[in-house]
Amino acid sequence: MRWRQWLFIGMLLLSSCRKLLDVGSPIDNVTTNSAFNSDVTAAALMTGLYYDMSNGGAFMGSKGISYCCGLSADEFLLQQEEELSLSLYRNQIQTTVVPFWRVLYQYIYRVNATIEGLQAATKLTPIIRQQLMGEAKFTRAFCYFYLVNLFGDLPLVIGTDYKVNATLYRTSASKVYDLILADLRDAQELLRTDYLQADMVSVTRERIRPNKWAAVALKARIQLYLENWQEAINAATLVIDHHDLYDTSNITQVFQPDSREAIWQLQTVDKTFTDDAVLFIQQRSVQISHALLLSFEKGDLRRRYWLSGTGADLYPYKYKKVDGTGVPRENLVILRLGEQYLIRAEARLGAGDVNGAKADLDVIRSRSGLPGITFTTSDQLLPAIQQERRIELFAEWGHRWLDLKRTHYIDVVMESAAAAKSSSWASYAQWYPIPRSEIILNPHLFQNEGYHD
Q1: Which segments of 290-398 does DSSP mark as H helices, in order?
Q2: What predicted TM-score, i.e. pTM, was given to this entire model?
Q3: What's residue 326's pLDDT?
Q4: What angle do CA 433, 160, 3 make, to 5 degrees?
Q5: What structural domains and CATH numbers belong to the chain?
Q6: What's the rounded Cα separation, in Å, for the pair 221 and 27?
Q7: Whole-number Å distance between alpha carbons of 62 and 19
């Protein structure tokens, strides 16, 4: 069955059970249970979720993580006056207009409903049930990773009982990470190693449903953030060594749908182009910051092929299609091999393996047309790794914003960046506020430090 047919089934299911989309609302048990009476309808629930993720929400465009977190960090110069964008850019978010919280919890709620339905299902083909459970747990881990890194301690919603969810306290970040890692361990065991079409049976070259290696790649990132160096090395190595699927790509091919560097993508279902391309290329909502531009070394191919514009007025150009003409489509790349090399480089350095860290860093530099690193000490190499992450991952998935926070350089960097934005920096702004509406509804929630309702 073709993707659009499966999508149609998924949208029918969701339209008949619209309460699934509202955090804290009770689920229509009859409709939900019936979705797990066949492989087709059960698979359509996850397909429908991917569809929503690829159509705005928190994953793409002007309300997406890449754009909003880039505004918060030192990556962009804002060229518009829209309220949310301006508040993010100035690091002065109002508690009444907060990105990501609601939509990510909506995704989690739908995934929780899927997990519960799969656990109770008796009519599904076991291998399909297993794959769907793996996808659900992987997706929940991915959403919680961003929630905990953007908001800090937060309610840990793992079920669909709206009465329970409406009164949850904030859970410590360490406990949230425990759930993320548990979900990823399960996903790694449950997910297939190849990529599947929407029928959950046929193998495809497209990488638009998560597989085992997507779970391992995300686990490598988590372990890096937790400074579990050997665990991060082990996970990243599993992905990097899987040469039959993955390899670094020519710099012009990294963001193509058939890129061997891609580990997980979202398919742009209704169009052949990403909202990010329209945002950066057509709307020109931002230019890259002067600080970022100056960070590129002479001869870096990423400056030549991943930026466009004239003079110093350059904008991100990783995605290049802005209309529906021609083929192939461009998909949104979420996880890719370049990050895995940078994860392993930093983790190897943390574990004391300077030569191994240099070797991984040089893989990325060589692909970018740059010479190998000549540094010989950890004190020299760590800034080089962070610099390489800044250039390699700019305008992607909030990496710069989260890197500044986890490496504790955020105050130093953002004080300078705020001046360039004609703003000011306060350390509490590294955490986004809890939406005021959520605090009103749940008496057990409290606001992040520095924000006033």
Answers
A1: 290-295, 301-305, 337-350, 354-367, 378-392
A2: 0.93
A3: 72
A4: 90
A5: 3-318+333-422 (1.25.40.390)
A6: 33
A7: 26
